[in-house]
Write a structure and sequence with these properties.
The protein has about 375 residues and is α/β, with parallel strands linked by helices. The chain has helices at about 15-20, 30-50, 60-70, 85-100, 115-125, 145-155, 175-180, 205-210, 225-235, 250-265, 265-285, 310-325, 350-365, 375-385, and strands at about 5, 55, 80-85, 100-105, 130-135, 135-140, 145, 160-165, 185, 200-205, 300-305, 325, 330, 340. A seven-stranded mixed β-sheet has the order 2-10-9-8-5-3-4, with helices on both faces. Strands 11-14-13 form a three-stranded antiparallel β-sheet. Strand 8, helix 7 and strand 9 (about 185) form a beta-alpha-beta unit. Helix 2 (about 30-50) crosses helix 10, helix 12 packs across helix 13 (about 350-365) and helix 13 (about 350-365) packs antiparallel against helix 14. Bound molecules: pyridoxal-5'-phosphate (PLP). Pyridoxal-5'-phosphate (PLP) binds next to helix 3.
């Protein structure tokens, strides 16, 4: 049985992306390629909502975050604030510590976003902080943080602001320039329904200025943004817009996914994700399950649902065995306590919901958690039929 991916990434792939992937491979140089790559970057700029530097890097999301760390940190003991709402925030903190940063952690209560007063207090007490790291949408807990407010504080205190927008890119409001972000990492295989293999990043002039002022070289050749941009500028005229080879088919697939997102309209798309998120939360509540995130912080693209003790793995196994539906487990502190459903890209739709929600109810009934099938899908449809 084919697995249908209701996990919070990778998601189901858009059929038009699959068609693009079946076409002959292009070389990573030549004027045609240069033009296509630049159009893909222009589309990324529209999704990041930025006029700043954008690149499509053939690396995973965490490595794109690591690139920012390499460019910012110069010596052991430099102070950085890391805001964490779960596993991926913690992971970011781990990477910062690996490079010798003194990490001042803002650890928010489970299911909640940033306490702005705690952030201000940390910055008041630690004026040498170089940067603030945060995660827009914490995929492990289904918490969407208040990036606008954090960005205001970053600007007020004049700190570089780095945001992991990996699971929000293309599915949630994001305004790189207007909010005042300095470095953001997007993604292909979550809210865009494309495939892994490249990662879009946006970098502000302010960030690049700080890199220029470094007294020591970045401890990586490729990841030094100054080297990177110099190489890009050197080779772009002959249609070689990247210092190395790149997976051209993956970039073309990504470009199709971005073009479709822009054709749908970003505002429409964000609204679609919000409505489906709301419908999932209503459905789970109708099954008498609690949502991990407090409603104010609930993510529109991933829902973490608390499960009765001892059955988290059984729910996932039965959904997979009987229906081929794959949902996510808890991660880190939520392991064994929640299941996570991704409603990202093409799965953020009634078409997919109408499959998963009743199947979920059937499984819960078999496990003796609910006594009937129906209230969940009914609650979901009530939300989706509202205009
Ligand atoms: C919010 C967030 N950050 C980082 C990552 C890690 O991405 P990668 O596995 O591509 O390094 C993920 C992956 O699910 C994520 O959801």
């Amino acid at each position: 049985m084919r697995k249908v991916l209701f996990i919070p990434g990778p998601t189901e792939v858009d059929p038009d992306v699959l068609v693009e992937l079946s076409k002959p491979v292009m070389p990573h140089y030549g004027l045609d390629w240069g033009e296509l790559y630049n159009s893909a970057c222009e589309a990324s700029k529209k999704i990041f909502k930025t006029k700043e530097f954008v690149a499509l890097l053939p690396i995973p999301g965490s490595v794109a975050i690591e690139m920012s760390i390499l460019n910012i940190l110069e010596k052991v003991g430099e102070e950085v604030v890391n805001i964490t709402n779960g596993y991926f925030g913690d992971y970011q903190g781990e990477m910062l510590r690996w490079y010798g940063a003194k990490v001042l952690e803002i650890r928010n209560d489970v299911g909640q976003g940033t306490d702005i007063e705690a952030l201000k207090e940390t910055l008041d007490l630690n004026p040498r902080v170089k940067a603030i790291y945060s995660v827009h949408n914490e995929t492990s807990t289904g918490v969407a943080d208040n990036i606008i407010e954090i960005a205001k504080i970053a600007r007020k205190y004049d700190k570089l602001f780095i945001v992991d927008t990996i699971s929000s890119y293309g599915g949630m409001e994001l305004e790189f320039d207007a909010w005042g972000i300095d470095y953001a990492v997007g993604y292909a295989s979550k809210c865009l329904s494309s495939i892994n293999g490249i990662c879009p990043i946006a970098v502000s002039k302010r960030f690049l200025e700080r890199v220029k002022k470094r007294k020591t070289p970045v401890k990586s050749y490729y990841f030094d943004l100054q080297n990177y941009i110099r190489e890009v500028n050197k080779w772009s005229a002959i249609g070689h817009p990247h210092p190395t080879s790149v997976p051209t088919s993956v970039i073309r697939a990504f470009h199709i996914a971005q073009t479709k997102a822009l054709e749908e309209g970003l505002e429409e798309r964000y609204l679609r994700h919000r409505r489906v998120g709301e419908a999932y939360r209503a459905a789970f509540r109708a099954m008498r399950l609690d949502i991990l995130a407090k409603e104010k912080w609930a993510s529109p693209v991933v829902t973490a649902v608390k499960t009765p003790e001892g059955i988290e793995d059984k729910i996932r196994a039965l959904l997979l065995e009987r229906f081929g539906f794959m949902i996510g487990s808890g991660l880190g502190l939520t392991e064994g306590k929640v299941v996570r459903v991704g409603h990202m890209g093409i799965t953020a739709s009634p078409q997919y919901m109408i499959q998963l929600v009743p199947a979920f109810e059937v499984v819960l009934k078999d496990l003796g958690v609910v006594d009937k099938v129906g209230p969940g899908i009914e609650a979901a449809m009530k939300i989706l039929s509202k205009r």
